[in-house]
Design goal:
Elements: H1 2-12, H2 32-50, H3 59-94, H4 99-102, H5 106-122, H6 126-146
Length: about 160
């Protein structure tokens, strides 16, 4: 019964066709998520490099060390993957062919940033993590310039 009522309503009041230039309504894209996640990658990389391994004979300290190291690695890899996902969404959903005129290096910029995300997952490399932050800043600048706005880039640390 309910199905027939809903069907009748849909036929009587059909929905208007909607048009959009992107997958979602304007304004839903923001490179801030990528920055936050990339900053977590940098933070975890620094924490991993700063960890000091205890004496192997100190079982309790070794277990704590391995637990902490494992957590830092898991967070670093998860955040690097999420950074990549955020960047790929911006690249494939927000930026359009007309943006290539203003940013001729757009594809290379995103491709290199995605590769840096992968490098940060596979390695514990401070230089790569810092390069990722720089790449995200560059994308932040391109994004807001494409929207005709100046939005400051800031980090939490």
């Amino acid at each position: 019964m309910l199905d027939s009522v809903l069907t009748a309503l849909r036929h009587r009041f059909p929905a208007e066709e909607a048009q959009a230039h992107c997958d979602g309504p304007c304004g839903v894209y923001d490179p801030a998520d990528a920055r936050i996640k990339a900053e977590a990658v940098l933070s975890m990389t620094k924490k991993i490099l700063a960890l000091e391994m205890p004496q192997p004979s100190d079982t309790k300290a070794m277990i704590g060390y391995i637990n902490t190291l494992t957590r830092y690695i898991a967070i670093k890899e998860e955040q690097a993957q999420k950074t990549k996902e955020e960047l790929l969404i911006l690249w494939t959903d927000f930026f359009k062919p007309q943006h290539l005129e203003a940013f001729p290096n757009l594809h290379e910029t995103f491709w290199k940033a995605a590769k840096l995300c992968s490098a940060c997952k596979v390695e514990v490399n401070l230089e790569k993590a810092e390069e990722l932050m720089a790449a995200v800043k560059n994308i932040h600048d391109m994004f807001w310039k494409a929207k005709g706005r100046e939005v400051p880039y800031y980090t939490a640390s």
